[in-house]
Amino acid sequence: MAAHFLAVDGGGSGSRFLLVAADGTHRIERGAANVFSDFDGSVAVLTDGLSALEATSGVSLIRVPACLALAGAIDEATCARVAAALLLSRVVVEEDWRAALDGALDGADGTLAGIGTGSFLARRQGAEAWAIGGHGAVLGDEASGAWIGRQLLSRTLHAAEGLVPGSPLADATLAEFGGIPGIVAFARTATAEAFAALAPRVAAAGGDPLGHAILTDGAAYLHRAAAALGWQPGEPFCLSGGLAGTYAPRLAAPLAEARVAPKGGALDGALARARRLAETGA
Asked: Where is the ATPase BadF/BadG/BcrA/BcrD type domain positioned along the sequence (predicted)?
């Protein structure tokens, strides 16, 4: 059986590398990696992280069983391109939600909502696992940090134009960006990460009606998405990601009653997958 295992969790907020070796564990962190939106940049991040991991551990990774759980690895062709671009001969590349689901539930049945810069919901039942969402800031990622930031600016524009009632949060946002032209100019080139950077002010706004409406709508999406996945009352439901604490108190029964703490993260799930690769060869 292999003595070394490699796990990588690459996403919009950064990439984490873990090597389990005979002398212990070695960890490296690098920048964002989304192999769909920026394939070349992501491969550069991955290559740099793997090289640094080899340097710090003294272990050649080329034959080490590895699982790379990556944002943007949305189809077999993309996964194959990533595998071909890296000097790893025993590697599984998969979309990050799979590792996140297995890490959160330790392989057991249940549903996970991952809510950070982007978002997804995934469910496992027996040997089958499936997910919805995660389609990026332009078309989806509802309830995510990027979605919250985009909603803040959009609803601030609506308030400024009299389409919805104003609020202190809307007034402060409008002033900070220099009015409607400033918001439009910011949004023209803003990345998902830039939109997501606005989310903490919404979460911290307390009883502000505009902020409350955004987060209420985000929580409602989580309920709809869990139902669409087939989640059943009493089945474990996990929240993970940077906004998990924001949405936890906004869940309603029976979803709130089924909420359990994640047992681990995507890196744990990727490590378990690398171990299975070593044991079964697939």
From this structure: 8-246
Per-residue pLDDT reduced to its tens digit, 97-141: 999 999 999 889 999 999 988 899 999 998 899 999 988 778 888
Rounded-to-integer distance, Cα 137 and Cα 117, Å: 9
Tell me how far apart the alpha carbons of residues 222 and 219 are, in angstroms, rounded to a whole number.
5
Distances in whole angstroms, Cα of residue 141 to Cα of each of 22, 80, 195, 209, 213: 40, 25, 12, 22, 17
The yes-or-no verdict on residue 275 having pLDDT over 70 is yes
State the Cα–Cα distance between residues 139 and 119, nearest whole angstrom.
12
Range list of H helices, the chain: 39-57, 76-85, 96-105, 145-160, 168-176, 180-189, 192-196, 199-203, 209-229, 244-247, 255-258, 266-280
24 burial level (CB within 10 Å; 0-12, 13-18, 19+): exposed
pLDDT digits (tens, 9 = 90+) for 30-72: 998 888 888 999 999 999 999 999 999 888 899 999 999 998 8
Domains of the chain: total = 2
Given the structure tokens 């959009």, which residue do they identify? Answer: 154
pLDDT at 2: 62
Distance of alpha carbon 135 from alpha carbon 142, whole angstroms: 9
Residue keyed to tokens 């799979």: 98
CATH number, domain containing residue 11? 3.30.420.40
Residues shown for the chain:
282
**Do 19 and 156 belong to one domain?**
no
